[in-house]
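forwarding from the other thread:

> can someone predict this with guanosine-5'-diphosphate?

sure thing
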Amino acid sequence: ELANRMAERVGEVVKSLMKMGMMVTANQTIDADTAELIIEEFGHKIVRVSDSDVEDVIATIVDDEVDLVSRPPVITVMGHVDHGKTSLLDAIRKSKVVAGEAGGITQHIGAYQVTAEDGSLMSFLDTPGHAAFTSMRSRGAQVTDIVILVVAADDAVMPQTIEAIHHAKAAGVPMIVAINKIDRPDADPDKVRVALLQHEVIVEKMSGDVQDVEVSAINGTGLDDLLEAISLQAEILDLKANPKRSATGAVIEAQLDVGRGPVATVLVQNGTLRQGDIFVVGEQWGRVRALMDDKGDRIKEAGPSVPVEVLGLNGTPEAGDVLNVVETEAQAREIADYRAHAAKEQRAAVGAATTLEQLMAKAKDDKSVSELPILVKTDVQGSAEAIVQAMEKIGNDEVRVRVLHSGVGAITESDIGLAEASGAPVIGFNVRANASARNSANQKGVEIRYYSVIYDLVDDVKAAASGLLSAEI
Ligand code: GDP
């Protein structure tokens, strides 16, 4: 690879390395310092490209306090299937589209912006559910500022409601509870509020600090209250960005369009993205040929929290990929190449897994790790509770076990997604992983451990936790 990049013969490079006392073969990996010596010896110019270079490009831009302005919040809707996530997103969008504007038809680009009664802007991610949320997070993009937890008033708290709560908590994103289907005759919003207590979501009406709003996605009741709650939460979060800098963003959706080539919807997170900007996004790069807003209109630039469709990519990125505007095309191409190469190597490396043992090793390198995150799935609710209690007893001031999520039923793909995003192993107690979860775990290198005796589980986790502990001393 090095020889290739220098346009020298492989044999010559190997020979030089041997002269330096390194007995290597053509396919062996050498460290960067050695590579530098070789490059110098061959009289070439050294251009180090790594992720840290990308960071450097970004890090050189220090946002001046005076340039920071408030930015709209970005909202994701989560909750159990059929509780009305899609209906709610549609209702909000429709109620805020000015009649006649672009024929009242909005385009689906994976996200949209609305203006609340008080004039404040907010951006909604149009892919409800936590699969999208975690897959983005596991790729390093934390785009959501606020989670709307939708719970149907005629159904109460369900397994995916609980999952959503755990996803939001694991990401440290504040929630607003939307108690939906309030129009139903059998709606019982207080039952929802009480049920949420069990999952440590204490809503305002129960004297907690999580806002709760009764809504109906069908007849529009409470939508303005919900937007008001969002405004309030956004104010508390005091979200800021610098529109003057070059843009960074995250890919919400991307696909290969027959007519237009690769198209990505990007949520600008900081800075302003402009037509003509050169950028790198995940393993792809490009130059912004055109920008389209959520109404399908061509725009020249997009500022913080604005979702835009970007044309001009050389390939299709993945949801969650981070976009950075860079100075030159050469830089963009080099970084994209480097990442593609690094990703290939990583895929090839066997067992990049998150095991209990690896968590311990990581703790030894990184002294700040003092929490052992795990996911627990069990056959019955009783054992889930018993395990969570037993886990909480393990550890002390320095180390503790954190059960990110516990639930009843088989281990699913969604569990694996959360585990990957949080670097946690998944514990199956008297339950197995379904086929798609097993595949996904293999691909993502997430460890699944099966137990049928609580003591065995406690012993293993204790051992892992004490590994963390001794590493700290
Ligand atoms: P999702 O799976 O969470 O996205 O749920 P959907 O938005 O697809 O809604 C599931 C079902 O509930 C659909 O039949 C909706 O028409 C219905 N629904 C959603 N919101 C409401 C509501 O506020 N009131 C009533 N009565 N039905 C609703």
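Residues 99-104 have pLDDT under 50 and may be disordered. thats all i got for now
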